[in-house]
Amino acid sequence: MIRVHDTLQRRKVDFLPIDPSHVRLYACGPTVYGLIHIGNARPLVAFDVVARHLRARFPKVTYVRNVTDVDDKIIQRAAEAGEEPQALAARFAAEYRKDAEALGCLPPDVEPRVTTHIPEIVALIETLCARGVGYVVDGDVYFAVERFAGYGELSGQPLDQLESGSRVEVDERKQSPLDFALWKSAKPGEPSWPSPWGAGRPGWHIECSAMAERYLGVEFDLHGGGVDLIFPHHENERAQSQGAHGAGTFSRHWLHNGFVNFNDKKIAKSDERMQRLLKRAFTLRVLLDRHGGEAVRFFLLTTQYRHPINFEVLGSPPQDGAAVGPGSGSPPQDGAAVGPGSGSPPQDGAAVGPGSGAERGGEGDELRFPGLEEAERQVEYGYLTMRRLGEALAVGKDPGAGPVLEEAAGWLGELGEALDDDFNTAGALAALQQGLGVANRLLDGKLAAPKDVKRRTLMRLAADLAAASGELGLLCADPATWLSAHRARRAAARKLDVAAIEAAISERAAARAAKDFARSDAVRDQVKLLGVELMDGASGTTWRVAD
Fold first, then answer.
1. Domain boundaries of the chain, sorted by first residue
2. What is the pairing mode between strands 540-545 and 3-6?
3. Fewest 10 Å CB contacts: which of 156, 173, 188, 358?
4. Tens of pLDDT along 271-286?
5. Which CATH superfamily does the domain covering 3-257 fall into?
């Protein structure tokens, strides 16, 4: 039984899908006007795991994740760049999909864009107006908050305590300061579409209501997004959809991921040093190039999705603080931190490896990301294990049915139980580490077993690790391919001469063949001084960049 923490109910509840044969999930995607940042990456990864685990438990899952491709920020950024808004949005939507793929996120079943769903949006607004909760003012259409009795239930904010704020448009023509735009009348030079109220474009909130209804129906099972979307975006989505279709419609459960905090602090625009760091350290593309997508994914999974995770950066960029990409990503509601947090509490599972122990650098030091460095080590360990396992199973015969070592039999069930418990990825990673550890101890001869039991256990571990990889989106690549790319990235970062290292390995192999072990040892010591570790195996000698 899967249990989820439902934001609306403010407690953990049993997940009972409307139709157990078909689970339906909607998650808010980005507003595409720049490269996304690691805050945007968190819901991407979190709800990818939710979808993966649901598919492991139910026969059919439809996962919808939208792209907002028309928005005030898109229009503003396009004007600054001298580009058409739709061209800019399409360009950054492509970059977003590239980053999502690098993170190991499977494509959603449906990825609707706002600009291709204008008829559905207009139809929903017409329904709201017909039901008396939408009203027209000079070509604009607003939702009348005070006419919807359930407003504030999702965010837990009573209507009489809500105030018009930075995320609520202030307009004296509105009947109430809290009323929000369903349709915005056209302004010169902005993209627009025809409607019964005149040319214009959709408001932000109505987009998701219309697209979720189009692909998942009036009622569906789960709606996800960042905790900062609870108000006003998700509150308004819920109000619109239930205003159109009645109480109890729209999403049955609401899931919200916690923030990515920056050096244990909320993001402060007034902090000049933080802003310089953000430009160099928060853009996801920088982190992908530096550490690889799987390391970023692993890092984000070390904390259960509901809790804040701390993104630590050591050192500072040069004083000019040049940005590394055209834009920092989606708006603040898509994942910027708003408060400090140290990660998940102990009961949600600790991260599976020790910290790097790096000391804090000075203002001029090169930037380092200790959490990603540790995550990269953990992913490398996983792929080294998978390679060893594959090499061991490449020779020998099938031992047939029979017992396996007890140590190999339980960890996959623990991984599933952790994910059943509100998608606790920290606990799942601990279970995965247990399985990898059993494989290495068995391959190292530290677990005694008859030959047939050992091989059967290795086969069981290989199958279970593949199943775990599918649910977590980790260790899914070919080990040799991943390790080669990882090594090349690290060698380039350290400016190592790969050709010289390969030549040294060949020289060492010749020395060993000639039984000149003194020379063989000397070559090993020489490359070790470069930070290179040689590894001898049945298929020859490979190498890695040491920590």
1. 3-257, 261-374, 494-545
2. unpaired
3. 188
4. 676 667 777 778 899 9
5. HUPs (3.40.50.620)
